[in-house]
Design brief:
By secondary structure, the chain is α/β, with parallel strands linked by helices. It is about 45% helix and about 20% strand. The chain has six helices and five strands; from the N terminus they run βαβαβαβαβαα. The chain has a five-stranded parallel sheet with strand order 2-1-3-4-5, sandwiched between helices. Strand 3, helix 3 and strand 4 form a beta-alpha-beta unit. Helix 1 (about 15-25) packs parallel to helix 5 and helix 5 crosses helix 6 (about 135-145). It starts with a strand and ends in a 5-residue tail after the last helix.
Length: about 150
């Protein structure tokens, strides 16, 4: 199983590389894809409706400002969607945080912290989800935890 990291703009890669770095450390295959909910809605839909059949077990969606991407992803897949709000609109990314965390009932997005801390936590949370059915990842999660999250 692998994780899709999807972001609305190539400029988001500077933050989301933190997620990719930690997914790699946990031994989780991942792909980073740029697709905007506003500029490429058909591409986002296609990625989500085919994600499971393409071997993905979770989606990490990062967006700033209106931050529609995580919610749009959740609308098109039954996989866990982890949302990472990004700075870019209101100070501290609060607009993106509110957009991602305030999803309608029945359309959950697991919302993380704004920025690099959220990107790292998205990788850790995905690893914890995958650890439920993968002993190797479970070992890495325990090592990470036992080292005081400072590896």
């Amino acid at each position: 199983m692998k994780v899709m990291i999807i972001m609305g703009s190539a400029t988001d890669e500077a933050v989301m590389s933190e997620c990719q770095k930690w997914l790699n450390w946990f031994g989780i295959e991942n792909n980073m894809i740029v697709a905007s909910a506003h500029r490429n809605p058909d591409k986002v839909r296609e990625l989500m409706v085919t994600a499971k059949e393409n071997g993905y077990g979770a989606i990490v969606a990062a967006a700033g400002m209106a931050a529609a991407l995580p919610g749009v992803c959740a609308a098109y897949t039954s996989l866990p969607v982890l949302g990472v709000p990004l700075d870019g609109g209101l100070p501290g990314g609060v607009d993106a945080l509110y957009s991602i965390v305030q999803m309608p009932a029945g359309l959950p997005v697991g919302t993380l912290a704004v920025g690099k801390a959220g990107a790292r936590n998205a990788a850790v949370l995905a690893a914890r989800i995958f650890a439920l059915s993968d002993a190797k990842i479970a070992e890495r999660v325990e090592a990470f935890k036992n080292e005081g999250y400072r590896i």
